[in-house]
């Protein structure tokens, strides 16, 4: 099967498996696991930060960050399709006691002009804004990338009004690759940054949360509260070190393969609608057209037909389909998948 459901389906590389088997370990709850300590130190250096913490999942990293910046009864500004809103099971409410103030933005790119009007007025009976949360790249907008000048304007505006800014950077290395920037440069103005080792970077488990030493010291409390106190975690941190240092170098391959798939979809304009300009990283999202083109096509049925031909994809709504490329599907596999996609679209 050619698995294009997500970049979370990757299997550890041979180098990762070898590193995991020979990893030096200790008890990380006592901060005694040397491999975890090295991963946290190296991640902080790559991003130009004082400190970082290794967490099991990106969701945990995001939710710890929200807890760091807020108190109960406040609001978090985020884009209307953001991961912290739609895919983290209301944890900003359950764990931090906050509600989301959502703002819809074209291609998921929140600008300061979007954000400023959503900031709560300083009235005692109005929930106060505590945090701005951005996502780069933006998953459900199709892997779109927020450019540095847009971020710089948000950082400056947030500083002026005294608000912290968090980045859900699950795929920030993809965003940096697309823009030709270092992750340190692209994330320099955020108060906290989360990124995933287990998506495009290919590690089997884990994400990192970065920030000041003070914030990461506090983050250890919340990680433990959420059940993230791991013991001999160096076994998985060893794979994370390879993901951090080696895997970003090949992300452009995934982006090129995503474009190949997107072009296959675009070649059948009577059967599907796709914004090719939005295909900027490793995610492809498109909408199927109905037989009369007035209504959308059957995404679940289309995905089922692809599966019968050996291609796994995701239906992300009644009419929309998502592909995600990664290192476990090479150019040959994506070329084959593109041909199957074209064939199935023509058959609709």
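-> sequence recovered:
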């Amino acid at each position: 099967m050619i698995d294009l459901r997500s970049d979370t389906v990757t299997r550890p590389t041979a180098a990762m498996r070898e590193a995991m088997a020979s990893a030096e370990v200790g008890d990380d709850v006592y901060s005694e696991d040397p491999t975890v300590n090295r991963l946290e130190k190296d991640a902080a250096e790559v991003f130009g930060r004082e400190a970082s913490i290794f967490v099991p999942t990106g969701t945990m990293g995001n939710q710890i960050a929200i807890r760091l910046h807020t108190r109960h009864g406040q609001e978090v500004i985020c884009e209307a399709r953001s991961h912290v809103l739609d895919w983290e099971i209301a944890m900003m409410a359950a764990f931090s006691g906050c509600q989301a103030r959502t703002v819809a933005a074209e291609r998921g790119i929140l600008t300061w002009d979007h954000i400023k009007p959503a900031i709560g007025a300083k009235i005692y009976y109005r929930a106060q804004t505590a945090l701005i949360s951005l996502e780069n790249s933006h998953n459900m907008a199709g892997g779109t990338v927020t450019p540095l000048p847009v971020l710089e304007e948000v950082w400056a505006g947030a500083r002026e009004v005294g608000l912290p800014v968090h980045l859900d950077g699950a795929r920030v290395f993809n965003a940096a690759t697309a823009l030709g920037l270092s992750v340190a440069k692209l994330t320099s103005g955020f108060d906290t940054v989360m990124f995933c080792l287990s998506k495009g970077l290919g590690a089997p488990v884990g994400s990192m949360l970065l920030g000041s030493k003070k914030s990461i010291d506090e983050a250890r409390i919340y990680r433990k509260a959420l059940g993230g106190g791991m013991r001999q975690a160096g076994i998985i941190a060893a794979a994370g070190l390879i993901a951090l240092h080696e895997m970003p170098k090949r992300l452009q391959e995934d982006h090129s393969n995503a474009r190949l798939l997107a072009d296959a979809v675009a070649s059948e304009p009577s059967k599907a609608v796709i914004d090719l300009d939005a295909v900027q990283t490793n995610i492809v999202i498109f909408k199927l057209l109905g037989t009369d083109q007035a209504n959308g096509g059957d995404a679940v049925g289309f995905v089922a037909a692809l599966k019968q031909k050996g291609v796994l994809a995701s239906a992300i709504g009644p009419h929309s389909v998502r592909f995600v490329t990664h290192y476990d599907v090479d150019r040959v596999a994506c070329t084959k998948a593109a041909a199957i996609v074209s064939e199935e679209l023509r058959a609709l």
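The chain has two domains: 14-248, 250-347.
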